[in-house]
Amino acid sequence: MRIRWTEEALIAEMKQHTTRASFSKKYGAGYKKAKMLGLLDEHLPLALHLWTREELQAAALNYSTRSEFQRKNQAAYGAAQRAGCINEVCAHMKQILEHDWTIDKLKVAAAPYLTRTNFKHGRPSAYKKALELGVMNVICAHMGKQDTLSDNDTIYIWKVVGFDNIYKVGVTSKRLGDRRIKDTIRNSGFDGKLIYMKYVNGLATTLEREIHDKYPSADLGYFDGYTEYIEVDDIEEVITALSDC
Questions:
Q1: Which of 30, 88, 117, 124 lies deepest, with the highest CB count within 10 Å?
Q2: What is the spatial distance between Cα 213 and Cα 42, in angstroms, rounded to a whole number?
Q3: The predicted structure's pLDDT at residue 48
């Protein structure tokens, strides 16, 4: 059913969100209408959300396992980890005991992570069991190798689908083509569309840093890698500048 977005309806809906990203993702048309009417700054300020324990607990209660929690709500999961209350807010979830680990369960546990280091820190018991069973290469096949994640010679930009002006800027290796970028999109929790990739004669991280210094971080909440997303009204301006490098 199509929603009639009156000012009252928009304000009521914005009260249900802590970030503009969640509002835009759920109701794209409503977000655009609120932006057009100038309601966002007053009712949903552009700022990273500082989670309270109560909010983290409420978010966690929507999920039955940690992997589901991390996959579907990276912002809350990451905030709980940094606050040191991940065990507390996940106490109601199903626990997979070490002796219950199977290869399929280990694959599920490893799936949200881009690197083995992150997997090791995020799911230590699963990481340990994978080593014991000798299946690390199997369950981590989707990850980049630690020593070949990036040659730092290629910069890329992909658009976060569903948002008018939010993009992910990062670096990778020319020899990997777009494989690493597709992995990044798949593991981000967002839908993404690659719009630019360029090999550079020098350190790609230098250009990446200049872009992140010039444009504001996108309001997507706190999660691993959240600072790599920027908000840009005219992405062609960025692409033109990169093309001249």
A1: 30
A2: 26
A3: 45
